[in-house]
């Protein structure tokens, strides 16, 4: 369970509010941010230290400014609650790509987790994942042969990462990989954390076909690390809130499925 502030919000929600505020204004003082989120100056300084370590904000004496590549990546628990309707729509559309008998990889994104929760009615499948919530979701499905990809456990992401995970992924050859990432524009995908980039790249290399799952809040944006050119994916599944001009440009290099939001 995430730690909460006096107002009952989780640390991730508080830090998201700080990042959004600084991004909108360009910079802010620590005192200003403490008043904004309703916690002590000491607590805000701890938040700012963590956000600066993660490359999200640039700290200076008395305050912070925005990094040009800022993309907030919260904990697994935080991400599960974000853009729920969009992820549901994207997962329903991506589900149509999964055929009985297929072998698939799911990354540690919450959009892929949403897809995992819909796989029970597809038929016999082999599913490999490094994401502990997806493992919990899939372990009781009788028609799913589940491969758990181990490695160095990350409590923040609730997934297994590092060289052991990369090697485990590299030993596989699957039909399809479903991955998501922090940000994209019309030509490139990005992620804020290098350790996750390495695992996701290994998944792309292990699959015959790669499906990119992206909600419209992540585009057009950039993050700290380039992950893969858009042309390295075979299909983009995105919700219907995505910018039409970006989709038109992206359509030159990738096939796109637009997921309708609302009641299916």
UniProtKB/TrEMBL annotation:
Xref: Pfam families: DeoRC, HTH_DeoR
Entries under InterPro entries matching the protein: Carb_Metab_HTH_regulators, DeoR-like_C, DeoR_HTH, NagB/RpiA_transferase-like, Tscrpt_reg_HTH_DeoR_CS, WH-like_DNA-bd_sf, WH_DNA-bd_sf
Keyword Repressor appears in the UniProt entry: yes
Keyword Repressor: yes
Domain HTH deoR-type, residue spans: 11-66
Example GO molecular function: DNA-binding transcription factor activity
Superkingdom classification of source: Bacteria
Keyword vocabulary terms for this entry: DNA-binding, Repressor, Transcription, Transcription regulation
Role played: Repressor of the lactose catabolism operon. Galactose-6-phosphate is the inducer.
PANTHER family, A to Z: GLYCEROL-3-PHOSPHATE REGULON REPRESSOR (PTHR30363:SF4), HTH-TYPE TRANSCRIPTIONAL REGULATOR SRLR-RELATED (PTHR30363)
Name of this chain's protein: Lactose phosphotransferase system repressor
Species name: Actinopolyspora erythraea
């Amino acid at each position: 369970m995430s730690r909460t502030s006096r107002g009952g919000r989780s640390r991730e929600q508080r830090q998201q509010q700080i990042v959004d505020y600084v991004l909108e204004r360009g910079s802010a003082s620590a005192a200003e941010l403490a008043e904004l989120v309703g916690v002590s100056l000491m607590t805000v300084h701890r938040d700012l230290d963590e956000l600066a370590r993660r490359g999200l904000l640039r700290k200076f004496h008395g305050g912070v400014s925005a990094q040009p590549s800022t993309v907030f990546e919260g904990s697994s628990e935080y991400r599960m609650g974000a853009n729920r309707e969009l992820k549901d729509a994207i997962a329903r559309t991506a589900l149509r790509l999964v055929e009985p008998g297929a072998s698939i990889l799911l990354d540690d994104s919450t959009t892929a987790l949403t897809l995992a929760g819909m796989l029970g009615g597809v038929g016999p499948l082999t599913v490999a994942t490094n994401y502990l919530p997806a493992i919990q979701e899939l372990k009781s499905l009788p028609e799913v042969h589940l491969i758990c990809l181990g490695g160095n456990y990350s409590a923040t992401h609730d997934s297994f990462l590092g060289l052991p995970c990369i090697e485990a992924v590299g030993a596989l050859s699957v039909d399809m990989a479903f991955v998501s990432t922090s940000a994209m524009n019309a030509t490139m995908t990005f992620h804020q954390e290098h350790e996750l980039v390495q695992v996701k790249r290994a998944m792309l290399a292990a699959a015959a076909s790669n499906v990119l799952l992206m909600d419209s809040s992540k585009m057009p944006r950039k993050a700290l690390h380039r992950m893969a050119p858009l042309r390295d994916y075979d299909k983009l599944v995105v919700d219907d809130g995505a910018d039409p001009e970006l989709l038109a440009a992206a359509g030159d290099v990738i096939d796109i499925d637009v997921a309708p939001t609302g009641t299916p």
